[in-house]
Design goal:
Number of helices: 5
Distance between the termini: 71 Å
Helix content: 25-40%
Number of strands: 12
Structural class: alpha+beta
CATH architecture of the largest domain: 3-Layer(aba) Sandwich
Strand order of the largest sheet: 4-5-11-8-7-12
Strand content: 25-35%
Number of domains: 2
Radius of gyration: 22 Å
Order of helices and strands: HEHEHEHEEEEEEEEEH
Oligomer: single chain
């Protein structure tokens, strides 16, 4: 079975990216170094996953290091509500070494077992695509490029789409390996070209029946955002201003 991984940076500065990652995933893998134990960004990532109400699998990494202490990690995370199965809890912990490639297959199996235990991850591929923009940028040669994750339906080259306040027709798509594809089904991430502007990370996208509809939806969303910003920028007038 195919699994799509969305990697978010561990550095503390990437708070928003971790929050978005938690919100678009079905299962969160919390990676904790066996030598360092839990760090501030570990707790932050855990809070995002718990706020998104997604199951958590813990990968205890760097077990190849001499000072690795996986038992300490299990003990520390117990304080935050993640109790390992061997301690009588319901959270799967897997000791791994990314550097040595140790127990990676066991981690994948833990993800699949967690999914099978309590999630219904079925999606209908035979309808217009919907999903979310994970990140986007303006490329000098290709224009606006958005990495989108299809959550239902199938996205095709030539489809009219709207993503946030951006709209357009899918001109080209490439997969995670840089290979050009003509369609992408549920749970597949692809880079999309052809949008009028750069959508915001976390913006939802959907396919419409024609370009005009996509443009109208985008313009309506833009007007809502503009009005919200204007309302926010207005200063409140108090009685003291009239005295």
């Amino acid at each position: 079975r195919a699994i799509t991984f969305i990697d978010t940076p561990g550095h503390e500065a990437f708070t928003a990216m971790r929050a978005r990652g938690a919100n678009v995933t079905d299962i969160a893998i919390l990676v904790v170094a066996a030598d360092d134990g839990i760090m501030p960004q570990t707790i932050e990532a855990l809070n995002h996953a718990q706020a998104a109400n997604v199951p958590i699998v813990v990968a205890v990494n760097k077990i190849d290091k001499p000072d690795a202490n996986p038992a300490k990690v299990r003990s520390q995370l117990t304080e935050y509500g993640l109790v390992a199965e061997e301690f009588g809890g319901d959270t799967m912990f897997v000791d791994v070494s990314a550097r040595e490639g140790l127990h990676i297959q066991e981690l994948i199996e833990a993800v699949l077992l967690t999914a099978d235990a309590g999630l219904d991850l079925r999606a209908n591929p035979d309808k217009d695509a919907r999903g979310v923009a994970i990140e986007a940028k303006l490329d000098r040669g290709r224009g606006a490029v958005a990495t989108v994750l299809i959550q239902s339906g199938t996205l095709h080259v030539g489809d009219a789409i709207v993503a946030g306040t951006a709209y357009g027709r899918v001109r080209a798509m490439v997969d995670e390996n840089g290979v050009t594809v003509t369609e992408a089904g549920p749970s597949r991430p692809v880079q999309v070209q052809g949008l009028s502007s750069v959508p915001g990370a976390g913006d939802t996208f959907l396919v419409t029946d024609e370009d005009r509809t996509a443009r109208q939806i985008a313009e309506k969303r833009e007007a809502v955002e503009r009005n919200a910003m204007l309302a926010k920028s207005r200063t409140r007038i108090s009685l003291e201003d009239f005295t």
